[in-house]
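Q&A log
Question type: sequence-to-structure
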Amino acid sequence: MVRKGRGLGIGVGLSFLLAAALVLAQEDPLVIFAVVTKVPKDKKQVTAHLSVGGDVREGTLIASEDLLGNPIWRKLEICHSLKVEAWKSQEGYRVVSVKVLDAGMLPMSLQGVAGDCLVKKAVEIAPLAD
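Response status: OK
Response body:
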C-alpha cells in the first residue's frame, strides 16, 4: 500500500510538471516591429517606438546575454528598423530574436516614425561631414 501511494504521488507530480511545460511551450513570443529612437548607450536596454498588435508606443527592448553577442544587436544605432520576437515583462520586452528590416517593410504606423528619424539623423550628421 505504501508503494502504491508513493508511485501515485510521483505520477501526479510528473503530470503537473508536464502540464506546466505544455503551457509554457504554447506561449509563443510576440512579433514586434520597432524603430530605435534613442541612441542606445547601454545595449542591454534599448528605447524604441514599438508596434505591438497595431498599437504604436514607446517602449524598452531588453536583450538577453545571448543576444548581446549577436552582430545585429552590437551594431544597433538610432533609426534602425527591426523585427523582434519578445516576451512582455514588467520592465519592457525581453528579446528572443531580432532581424534588421528596411524601413519600407515596417507596418505603415511605424514608417512615418522611421522616416522622421532618418531625416533628423541626416540633418544632424550632414553638417559634420563638411
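Response note: Residues 100 and 114 are 13 Å apart (CA to CA).
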